[in-house]
Amino acid sequence: MSLCHFYPSLVIKFFRVCVCVCVELKMAASSERSPPPFPDSEEPELLEDSDEGADAFTGTSISEMDSPSPDSTRPPKDIFNEPPEDIFSDPLSNINSEPQKKVDAKIPSPSSDEAVDLFSDPLDDDSEVMSSPEVQNPMPDLLNEPVEAPKSDVLGEPPVHRDAARQQDVFEDPPKSSSKSSSVKKAASSEMFGDDDDDEDLFKEPPKVVTKKPQPSGPPVDVFTEVKSDVKVKPQVKDDPTDLFAEEALTAPAPKPSAGSSSSRTNGVHSEEQDLFSEATVELSLDSPRNDRKNKDAVKPSVSAPAAPVASSSSKAPSKTLKELEEEESEDKFDLNISITNPEKVGDGMNAYMAYKVSTQTSLTMFRSKTFTVRRRFSDFLGLFEKLSEKHSQNGYLIPPPPEKSILGMTKVKVGKEDPSSAEFVERRRAALERYLQRVVSHPSLLQDPDVREFLEKEELPRAVSTQALSGAGFLKMLNKATDAVSKMTIKMNEQDVWFDEKIQDVENEEQHLRKLHVMVESLVNHRKELSGNTAVFAKSVAMLGSSEDNTALSRALSQLAEVEDRIEQLHQEQASNDFFTFSELLADYIRLLGAVRGCFDQRMKAWQRWQDAENMLQKKREAEAKLLWANKPDKLQQAKDEITEWEAKVTQYEREFERISATVRKEVIRFDKEKARDFNRQVIKYLESLLHSQQQLIKYWDAFLPEAKAIV
Amino acid sequence: MEVSSAEAALSVSASSIRITDVTQDGDVLTFALTSQKLDSSAGVCVFRIYEDFDWLQQSLFSQENLPGLQGIIFPPLPSKALPSQSNTQTKALKQLGFLALGQDWQSYCKALEFYLQQVAAHPTLCKCKALDSFLFNSESPGKQRGRKGIFNRLSQAVEEMRKESHKDVDNFFQNERNKNTNLAALSKVATEKLLDVVMTEQKLALACGHFSTSLHLCVNQDDASAVAFSKVCLKLSDVIEAVKRNLEKVASNNLSTLGLGLDLESRYQEAEKEMLFRRTCKLIELETVKKGTEKAKANKREVLEAFQKAVEKEFNLISSVAKQEIERFHSSHVNVLKNFLIGWCEVQLNTAKEFAELYSQHLEACRNMYSE
Fold this sequence. Notes:
With 713 residues, chain A is mainly alpha-helical. Chain A is built from 33 helices and three strands.
């Protein structure tokens, strides 16, 4: 860690390596990543920075950045010839290319190569930074900001390595300024820019760090996902036209260009940056809640998590990190309460819809205020899910699924006036949406997603479109189809990881069990309802009997009894809805969630498939080379060799990616299991409380009735 | 048999009559019956089958030399139970109601026991020799086929519609008849409804049982989180098991107290109705005779008048007995219902307390589980 003090040189070293690798790297691609012209206002800050070397290079770097970004014009490469996953895989393959390998190899002994530290243990560096303010500037940038930024600079300006650090600063600033403009609170953070040790501020003031993070994460996400997310980010960043990210956001909205740009970025050597970048963002978002909580002691073992996927070649590393992560998560003090209330019918006829009030109460500083309320409709919830799954599911994250769309139920609500069944439907959906949102925000990574924040905070959301196809039954069907397709693949895939092998089986079994339990609980609820109905009828007939009884005392006692039975009926009714909401809905939720878990496994399977395909391809290329050798055709030999190198890189990259996804999925599943046990326990407690309450009420009723019975003469 | 004489009728204490055991052999239920004579501390145990009970009932109906017999409200004998037929559960429920429920015919035995006690406690019926023979004779009396009862249910059913609505000469009886019809119907409905409640409780208990068992499926000891989840599942299984037991207990409480009480009540109302009907029949007979006498020629008038007087006397006697019986019935029915209600309330209260305690223990355990 202490080596980080020398980090400028280290960074340079590292970048040099990268540069070496990417000798043929396209300047254009890098420039595309490079920021727009810097605003004058920002420059002073830059110059004020303690890091002089960086200053020296700011000018050049800026000029570099000024170069127009031709990205959009670039023709999409192979990345786009292949499905979206490839976009993601490609970058990784580059990562795996030589320089990266070096890094990996060195990870076990970080002291040997600082560059490794930089990238494998970003947070460690953070801690370093804190301890040594002078060094801070470049480092935190690296960490807080997408790593890609520095990279691009390096790549764009191979000769001037030191620029990297400077560049990072440049990149870091824009988000801050943008946040400043967006909210008064954040204005405070703007002061930071003047200071030469911004980083310290950054870390002393966790809120700023937190607020900042989502923003950097926005653009990276863009790179990997699609236009949508870009659009999302846009409003936030827009205010600051000089902003690096704003520029990106602005370019992004044009749907195809953004795709094109991302492709160009991923092209060739450049894609490497993206890998790093994506990794960095992912890790950052993971870590940020922790930073928030524990920024004081910045030296976190969990920080090694980012390293895990990259350095997964050493088998011990990931598992260790997993454990650490677990510990981390168990310590979570989660202060975010979301409640959904006041379902309200808006509009008339078939265009009517239900709007729900989403109230959030939190002390998390990433939000603008402690309490806020927005109105959302059902499709907004679906839209949120869609956005989240687009962005995160391919990384192996478990996105909590929203409740299913019910055309029948909703039609009833639309048509019926005050039907008890439609009221029940609305209440049921309200509760389901509430649980859904709570699950989303309790996921440390998803909470960091700008879309989630926007969903909770922003007054008006753009109307979610085309949620129809993905919602409800359609969605489930799709999921099942995917699962089926993959299960066929399973046969081919010989699972080397015993843990996954067992877990996949477990999940399948569990899903069946839960379905069975769900059926049982349904019948339980129905019986309970029936009991309640029968009790009501009995109460009525007892009342009648009492009214025709001659003996006044007996008559009185009987009518009292009728009242008691009426109350007991109420109890049964409450218990029925308790049974329903505590168990039936819980089980339904978990059946859905298990579907999502399987989705994660599928993502992993896809990554594996890709890896295997690449492996096969490499094999073919090698055979081709052998043939060429045999045929003695030296002219084509070089090309074949190049192809082999290319595919070797791809294989390594896909393998890494597979390992990365495996690690994420594993982490997610462990987290899911944990949550599940906790959730069930909570529900059991709730259920017991309701049972206890019922019994206490019964005792009260019987106690009151006993003297009446005794008074009969 | 000779031992029991007319004055020995009161020699048995009604409350000592117990049905202690029941055995099922094919379609036949054999009841072990114990009772105690007042003048001895030794109990007598005999075995009886349903036909014996039926014989006793017919004997009571057909007692001779007992004026005003038709004014007596005979304690109702539960109808015959038909065990061992696979598809009889629903049929038996329809026929016997509550008495078909409960473990090993317990409630049916209770009802028979109650019937015997009522007979023995009845001031007139307890003098019947058949009762002594039934209680103490080790030989089964049912074999000596009694005469067909004079009050045949079937014939009654046919005539009922016609005669039931006959206007009474006596306001007291007219009122009583109206009230009885009302109460009989209401108590029957109440009994049925309570039966529904009990049945649903049993179904619910069964569903809980399934749920509780199925929860064991989720038990998995693979890793730490699975173990934690398994623990929760097992806990929940225990809780649901407790809920199941609670429901079973509540159901059996309902059955053994209020259920039996309401069942008895509704059958007694029927018995009263029958008595009132017999009296109405007599009244109609008397009126027919009167009309005949008026229309009759002088030569026959004398005979007819004598006959009319005899009938009128009999009718008056029946009416006076009936009046007493109705008084007696009213007070006893209030008493019986009171006892059942109190008993019911107490058991339910105890059950509620017991399970409140149990649930709070479970709750405590659950809360501790995650604080560990």
